[in-house]
Design brief:
The chain has 164 residues and is an alpha+beta fold. The chain has a single domain, classed as 2-Layer Sandwich (Dna Ligase, domain 1), CATH 3.30.1490.100. Helix content is 32%, strand content 36%. Helix 2 packs antiparallel against helix 3.
């Protein structure tokens, strides 16, 4: 029992994610930021300036915000696991008369990935592109006549951790 107690008392304290104070970009806007668990968790929601209907358009516009947040963590010496969520508006179109028969807002997420060095940021972007593109393709193929009307937001979610 003493051995367990010693290990627990010698464990590193959980790091805190530094807050990104200001952000501005010509291609996206930071519309929300949240913190929980004493800054062990943070999320940042970006909205592209121009309407996005593909994941490529969304990521290109939100890339400055995503990279700024993740580099800020690395510069402060905080390792994070990052994942993301997008808000997508789908519409079911009647191709005979062009009317919208149905509209559905869907939220899609990626799996968490560690960000330990700058190169991992680009990997995260590439993985997010692939995962979101596949999920959107799956959704539009699940029933006839579904299209993407708009991808509204990109939320970057972070949790701080101590890598082994």
């Amino acid at each position: 029992m003493k051995r367990t107690h010693q290990k627990c008392s010698q464990a590193k304290s959980t790091p805190r994610i530094p807050e990104l104070a200001d952000f501005s970009s010509d291609s996206c806007t930071l519309i929300a930021k949240n913190s929980a668990l004493n800054a062990v968790f943070r999320d940042y929601t970006f909205k592209p300036i121009m309407k996005s209907i593909t994941i490529d358009q969304l990521l290109k516009q939100c890339e400055p915000g995503i990279k700024t947040v993740l580099r800020h963590c690395l510069e402060q010496g905080v390792f994070v696991k990052a994942w993301s969520t997008i808000e997508v508006v789908f519409q079911k179109i009647n191709f005979i008369d062009g009317t919208v028969e149905n509209e559905d807002t869907s939220y899609m997420s990626t799996c968490a990935r560690p960000i330990l060095v700058d190169e991992y940021i680009e990997k995260l972007m590439n993985i997010a592109y692939k995962e979101f593109d596949d999920k959107i393709e799956n959704y539009t193929n699940r029933g006839s006549n579904w299209i993407v009307n708009e991808i509204k937001t990109f939320t970057l979610k972070l949790v701080a951790y101590n890598p082994m």
